[in-house]
Amino acid sequence: MDFAALDVREGPEGVTFRVRVQPRASRSAVTGLAGDAVRVALTSPPVEGAANAACAALFAELLRVAKSRVSIVAGLKSRDKTVRVAGVGKAAFFAALATVKFD
User: Fold this and answer.
1) Strand partners, 33
2) pLDDT tens per residue across span 29-71
3) Are 42 and 27 in contact (CB under 8 A)?
4) What would the DSSP string read from start to end of 6-61?
5) What is the rounded distance in angstroms from the CA atom of residue 30 to the CA atom of residue 73?
6) Quick one: signal sequence residues (predicted)?
């Protein structure tokens, strides 16, 4: 899959990227791309931060970092989010994304 369209930025604080979330899905997984964002499905409902926590946990597992290194910096109450992962570079992000089998 071609990841060139993704809006991924690398800075001293880590890698930042856009995510499009589908809450209340049958399983939690990265499901593909949605324009310049990574599309994810989450089993959690979008109430009281449950979907945000599930989103952070999903990317922590994918990138093999602690959950505390993953933060949602924009879109806490939206399906469109901006996620930052501390201690991960662009190359490691794309390498981890390349291991995902998209539906």
Assistant:
1) 38
2) 999 999 899 999 999 988 888 999 999 999 999 999 999 999 9
3) no
4) S-EEEETTEEEEEEEEE-S-SS-EEEEEETTEEEEE-SS-SSTTHHHHHHHHHHHH
5) 19
6) none
Distance from C-alpha of 59 to C-alpha of 57, rounded to nearest angstrom: 6
Question: What are the distances in angstroms from CA 83 to CA 11, 16, 26, 56, 66?
Answer: 13, 6, 22, 8, 14
Asked if residue 16 lies in contact with residue 82, where contact means CB atoms within 8 angstroms, the answer is: yes
Distance CA 44, CA 62 (A): 17
CA dihedral of 29, 31, 34, 40, whole degrees rounded to 10:
-10
Q: What DSSP element (H or E) covers 70?
A: strand 70-74
pLDDT digits (tens, 9 = 90+) for 2-23: 788 899 999 999 999 999 999 9
The β-bridge relationship of strands 80-85 and 8-11 is: unpaired
